[in-house]
Backbone:
């Protein structure tokens, strides 16, 4: 049915399960009002515990994607994909688009080796060699521009990024960092702000007039606490709104538990 979840993925297991079910709901596998696989089937297929599956199903019910029918199972509501896109540091734009059953794409605006300015050098903790790979892209969903993303990666951590063909469809920076250099984001920090788009950015995003855009500044750290990537992105306010999920304490498994949901 689908591949088991990966314990090397920094996303919690229940988030990965949720993403699998989401793709079934909006990828044509489960029709509107159709029944999703049972808890036992999901446990066996994905290789996780029942509590992990239940957490994923619970969230999908609370978000309106599933309804629970006692004694029968879980059924798709057919309500369509959510309007907001999850603000997640550990998941790439490409993965988020696919989870929403949309076609990701990009147009290269800049790829070069440059000397980092003070702000980027400080965020990446660069002191002597401040050379970074600068990657700036117009991000697309189903062919429509929705965001402008600018990434900076220290050259000594990923020396050949600028030589890759970034015009290839769905080339993910996080996937390249992971597969080529063993760099996996395990945490980070995010700063949100808003501003009016300048004329060039407004033209790229097809905005009319003096329109405010959401600015997202993120720093990703690996398991050793090293900053491996800085991202600054501008988001189209209607085509790519962001949502931030919040949980009450006690949802997650306590430290030292056998499995992280």
Residues:
């Amino acid at each position: 049915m689908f591949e088991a979840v990966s314990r090397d993925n920094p996303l919690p297991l229940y988030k990965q399960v949720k993403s699998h079910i989401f793709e079934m709901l909006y990828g044509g596998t489960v029709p509107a009002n159709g029944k999703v696989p049972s808890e036992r089937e999901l446990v066996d297929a994905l290789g996780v515990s029942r509590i992990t599956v239940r957490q994923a199903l619970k969230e999908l019910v609370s978000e309106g994607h599933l309804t629970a029918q006692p004694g029968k199972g879980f059924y798709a509501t057919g309500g369509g994909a959510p309007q907001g896109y999850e603000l997640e540091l550990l998941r790439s734009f490409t993965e988020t688009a696919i989870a929403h059953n949309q076609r990701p794409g990009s147009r290269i605006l800049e790829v070069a080796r440059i000397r980092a300015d003070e702000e980027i050098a400080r965020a990446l903790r660069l002191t002597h060699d401040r050379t970074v790979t600068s990657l700036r892209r117009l991000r697309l969903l189903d062919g429509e521009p929705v965001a402008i993303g600018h990434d900076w990666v220290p050259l000594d951590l990923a020396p050949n990024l600028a030589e890759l063909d970034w015009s290839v469809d769905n080339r993910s920076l996080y996937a390249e960092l992971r597969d080529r250099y063993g760099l996996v984001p395990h945490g980070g920090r995010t700063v949100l702000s808003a501003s009016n788009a300048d004329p060039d950015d407004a033209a790229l995003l097809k905005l009319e007039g003096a329109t405010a855009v959401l600015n997202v500044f993120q720093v990703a750290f690996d398991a050793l606490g090293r900053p491996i990537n800085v991202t600054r992105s501008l988001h189209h306010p209607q085509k790519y709104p962001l949502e931030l999920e919040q949980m009450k304490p006690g949802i997650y498994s306590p430290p030292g538990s056998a499995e992280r949901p």
About this structure: Residues 13-26 form the longest helix (14 residues). The chain is about 25% helix and 30% strand.
